């Protein structure tokens, strides 16, 4: 975010905070349907709900409900929630260990006159590292509490190290952030989404999470420039006048100057998401590091417009214009193409034709197209940003194949895919993550896997995947749509298709439905979402509706993803 935008955000959020402070309170009973509209990126400890502390005559049940509701107030390290705890326990309670996102009312059962059990129906949870996890339907977590009398008043003497909130409250007080790691060739930064309350301490929690490493599923594809075992030399990241001071332990001294530059860039891009941070200064054991900033290591924008397969070849299209890619028509016609994949430099073309997958360096004079894989049952091929071609048969038992920049076959391990029916593959912009739409029987699932590459960037393995979306019989298409999210289409029954955006490590959002959607795609460098329908009509989302860009489109993709 630019400095001007950050300043404007701070002015707006401060104004809203002045109006909202102290007036947004939660009852101790009853489900809350909505919260105050105070969502902001300003990191401070007053822009929240203001839960009430305990009353002198409160019963054990009132103390327990008040404590649970006080999870809506993270300000001052959950100071109000701690008022419900005994003097001995309040200093050791760790509210940031976990956050439970609950549904419905808590069910309280008294075990003895000084103990109780609370059953909560939980839809999701966030751990101490900010990792968001959706729970299976009807998940119930049982929490045990103990009570003690202090100065004639009931207090909680033992409780789980967690807080609980309902979904509308979570959406107000928590925000998603990316912590950044490098791909294994140190070319690009790769985001790993985490969730924290937007507070003064958020900078510290972001760096703590960064120092503890990537999510387990992503780890095979990424690395950190920060040496393993490095900690914060001071207990917190201090932000003063817009500058974040990050003081690392002596472990970081062993790095070269170039590695320090990479460390600083990794930390800087993680912290610049905070509106309160305009710059970052790196210290090691209180010694300032004189480091010249390197440019942001993010994939450059390859194309702002999608490429469509039209009657006269491939063309970039948008609402107002069409720009033909010279030389593609002959290749598409020669092999009876029904699908394609295009490299980022728009000089290499994969074609799914009548006899298999063909490879063509149409941008090079004298180059001849060649058959990569013979057959008729292939999903749409993909050329990733590094120029590697991804080809897979659709049927169970078929294997994933990867080819080099000259069309040479390269071995890759993806055994978990072999038994599945494959429908679609999509590679993230920086090339470290793959999305595969696949399934068994009538069931379709979306898999996201880390792409393990060797020192030359060659893909050698698709690691064990995660499933960010529940299994569905009706998923029609899925694709990366931005650096942290995938989009997918799901049949809604009848003529319409539901459109959803799922953050990897986060929440799901729905877009307006579209008629007969068959392919979704997005530009990973912007928020533009596109859908091709079964009639060959190509749409772009605009506000709450879909705008028709072009008809008579056979297929469409962005180059290099």
N- to C-terminal distance: 25 Å
Helical content class: 10-25%
Supply the helix-strand structural class.
Answer: mainly beta
The 3D shape can be described as globular
Extract low-pLDDT stretches: 1-5, 7-42
* Largest sheet, strands/sense/barrel: 6 strands, mixed
> Based on DSSP secondary structure assignment, what is the total number of beta strands?
37
Mean pLDDT: 89
Rg (CA only): 26 Å
Number of helices: 8
Task: Report the portion of residues in β strands.
Answer: 35-45%
Tell me about this structure.
This protein is mainly β and 561 residues long. 14% of the residues lie in helices and 39% in strands. The protein has 8 helices and 37 strands. Strands 1, 2, 3, 4, 5 and 6 form a 6-stranded mixed β-sheet that branches. Strands 10-11-12-13 form a 4-stranded mixed β-sheet. It has a 4-stranded antiparallel β-sheet with strand order 16-15-14-37. Residues 1-5 and 7-42 have low confidence and may be disordered.
Which features characterize this protein?
561 residues; mainly beta; six-stranded mixed β-sheet; 37 strands; 14% helix; globular
Task: Please describe the topology of this protein.
Elements: H1 3-20, H2 60-69, H3 75-82, H4 87-90, E1 98-112, E2 115-127, E3 132-134, E4 140-150, E5 153-158, E6 163-166, H5 167-173, E7 174-183, E8 189-197, H6 202-211, E9 222-223, E10 238-240, E11 243-248, H7 257-271, E12 279-284, E13 287-288, E14 307-310, E15 313-317, E16 322-324, H8 328-334, E17 339-342, E18 349-352, E19 356-360, E20 370-374, E21 382-383, E22 389-392, E23 400-403, E24 409-410, E25 421-427, E26 433-440, E27 443-453, E28 459-462, E29 475-482, E30 485-491, E31 496-503, E32 508-515, E33 517-522, E34 529-533, E35 538-542, E36 545-550, E37 555-557
Parallel strand pairs: 1-6, 11-12
Antiparallel strand pairs: 1-2, 2-3, 2-4, 4-5, 7-8, 7-9, 10-11, 12-13, 14-15, 14-37, 15-16, 17-18, 18-19, 19-20, 21-22, 22-23, 23-24, 25-26, 26-27, 27-28, 29-30, 30-31, 31-32, 33-34, 34-35, 35-36
């Amino acid at each position: 975010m630019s400095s001007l935008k950050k300043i404007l955000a701070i002015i707006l959020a401060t104004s809203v905070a002045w109006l909202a402070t102290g007036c947004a309170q939660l009852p101790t009973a009853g489900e809350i349907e909505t919260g105050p509209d105070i969502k902001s990126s300003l990191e401070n400890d007053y822009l929240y709900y203001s839960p009430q502390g305990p009353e002198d005559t409160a019963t054990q049940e009132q103390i327990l409900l008040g404590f649970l509701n006080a999870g809506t107030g993270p300000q001052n390290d959950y100071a109000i929630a701690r008022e419900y705890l005994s003097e001995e326990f309040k200093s050791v309670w760790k509210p940031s260990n976990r956050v439970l996102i609950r549904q419905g009312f808590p069910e309280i059962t008294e075990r003895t006159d000084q103990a109780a059990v609370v059953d909560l129906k939980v839809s999701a949870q966030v751990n101490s590292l900010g990792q968001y996890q959706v729970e299976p339907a009807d998940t119930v977590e049982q929490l045990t509490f103990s009570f003690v009398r202090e100065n004639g008043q009931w207090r909680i003497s033992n409780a789980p190290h967690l807080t609980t909130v309902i979904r509308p409250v979570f959406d107000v007080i928590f925000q998603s952030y990316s912590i950044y790691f490098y791909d294994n060739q140190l070319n690009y930064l790769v985001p790993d989404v985490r969730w924290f309350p937007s507070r003064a301490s958020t900078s510290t929690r972001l760096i703590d999470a960064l120092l503890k490493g990537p999510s387990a599923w992503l780890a095979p594809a990424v690395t950190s420039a920060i040496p393993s075992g490095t900690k914060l030399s001071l207990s917190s990241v201090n932000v003063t006048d817009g500058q974040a001071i990050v003081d690392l332990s002596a472990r970081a001294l062993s790095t070269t100057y170039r590695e320090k530059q990479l460390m600083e860039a990794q930390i800087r891009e993680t912290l610049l998401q905070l509106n309160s941070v305009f710059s970052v200064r790196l210290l090691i054991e209180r010694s300032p590091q004189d480091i010249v900033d390197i440019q942001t290591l993010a994939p450059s924008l390859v194309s702002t417009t999608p490429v469509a397969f039209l009657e006269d070849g491939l063309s970039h299209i948008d609402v107002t214009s069409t720009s033909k890619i010279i030389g593609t028509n002959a290749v598409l016609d020669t092999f009876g193409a029904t699908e394609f994949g295009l490299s980022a430099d728009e000089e290499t073309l994969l074609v799914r034709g009548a006899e298999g997958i063909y490879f063509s360096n149409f941008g090079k004079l004298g180059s001849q197209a060649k058959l990569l894989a013979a057959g008729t049952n292939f999903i749409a091929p993909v050329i990733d940003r590094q120029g590697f071609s991804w080809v897979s048969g659709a049927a169970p038992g078929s294997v994933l194949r990867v080819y080099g920049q000259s069309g040479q076959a390269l071995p890759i391990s993806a055994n978990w895919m072999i038994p599945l029916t494959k429908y679609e593959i999509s590679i993230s912009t920086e090339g470290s993550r793959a999305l595969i739409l696949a399934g068994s029987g009538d069931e379709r699932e979306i898999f996201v896997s880390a792409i393990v590459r060797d020192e030359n960037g060659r893909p050698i393995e698709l690691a064990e995947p995660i499933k960010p979306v529940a299994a569905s019989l009706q998923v029609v298409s899925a694709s990366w749509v931005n650096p942290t999210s995938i989009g997918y289409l799901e049949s809604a029954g009848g003529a319409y298709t539901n459109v959803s955006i799922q953050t990897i490590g986060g929440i799901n959002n729905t877009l307006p439905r579209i008629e007969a959607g068959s392919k979704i795609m997005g530009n990973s460098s912007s928020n533009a979402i596109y859908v091709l329908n079964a009639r060959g009509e190509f749409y772009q989302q605009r506000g709450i509706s879909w705008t028709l860009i072009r008809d008579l489109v056979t297929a469409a993709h962005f180059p290099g993803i």
